[in-house]
Amino acid sequence: KQVYGEERWEEIRRLAAVEQPSFSVHQVYSETLIPRLAKKAIQVLGVSEREFFDQMGVHFVGFVSQYGYDRVLSVLGRHMRDFLNGLDNLHEYLKFSYPRMRAPSFICENETREGLTLHYRSRRRGFVYYTMGQIREVARHFYHKEMRIELVREELLFDTVHVTFQLTFDNRAFTLSSLTMTREERHLPISASMLFEIFPFCIVFGSDMLVRSMGNSLMVILPDLVGKRITNWFDLVRPLIAFKFETILNRTNNIFELVTVEPVLPERGERERERARGEVPLPDEADAPGDERNLRLKGQMIYMDNWMMMM
User: Who has greater pLDDT, 275 or 154?
Assistant: First the structure.
């Protein structure tokens, strides 16, 4: 409406058979709505799919600023690289407001002073050019940097779109951060037993993916896990990467989310038998739906150098 006027919008809406004239920020809409509107908009406006979605991405950055999200975006970091590295964590934060959001996953690699490679994975299709427009506009709007985005590769793996972008921009901040990383750190010695008390839900596993140790509370819930392959007991939900040691090692700045393959809370019939034996479950466990009976762990993956293991 801002760029092409009210009449064009009405025409697009009519052709796409969309009843509602306006949309609410917190209502959930059908996944087919945007592709349907976009298809008709491209026809009516006489623009390419790339141009349309790119401009939508650019417009979105200014649009969310009206709702105060620009403040959220601007605290993601002082530099463009901090923003890109923090994108997955931003989506974790947004899940509190939009619990049904199917968030994409962003991973940075091959970082240099001239830019970096960005991997974008999503279960939703058709948002590649939109994402490119957004990122380029964030660089301009918040970090006052001109950025060139090149679409290197796009592939579909099972139900996930995996796109590789090459981002070229002034990334001198990378050199500064790499210098601070190489600073001599004075490690305080701390015993493993103390560590497992501080982090009662931690898991320690080796490059063979075998679990070597666990925090005290997790030991109570999954007493048989030690010595077993973590991949047989947990699914990696986020980020959207392979559950392998090397892959995790390259992504330690991401928030990780693991979910048990099997439910850890007993089902109703089993609970009745436990109640009869006098083992009464906690009241809030009583009627958890199927997927909520699985244990969900969310946190950081840290490579413990002296153990040569992941925690």
Answer: 154
Distance CA 94, CA 103 (A): 9
Amino acid letter, residue 220: V
CATH topology of domain 48-179: H-NOX domain (3.90.1520)
**Which residues lie below 8 Å from residue 118, measured CB to CB, with a gap of 6+?**
84, 106, 107, 108, 135, 164, 165, 166, 167
The reported pLDDT for the residue numbered 134 is 94
* Whether the Cβ atoms of residue 305 and residue 260 lie closer than 8 Å to each other: no
Strand-pair category, 203-205 with 296-299: unpaired
209 Rama sector, left if φ>0, alpha if ψ -120 to 50, beta otherwise: left
Give the Cα separation of 92 and 89 in Å (integer): 5
pTM: 0.68
93: pLDDT confidence band, cut at 50, 70 and 90?
Answer: confident
Give the span between the Cα atoms of 163 and 157, in whole angstroms: 10
Q: What topology does CATH give the domain 192-272+291-310?
A: Beta-Lactamase (3.30.450)
Domains of the chain, by residue range, sit at 1-46, 48-179, 192-272+291-310
Residue 285: pLDDT band with limits 50, 70, 90: very low
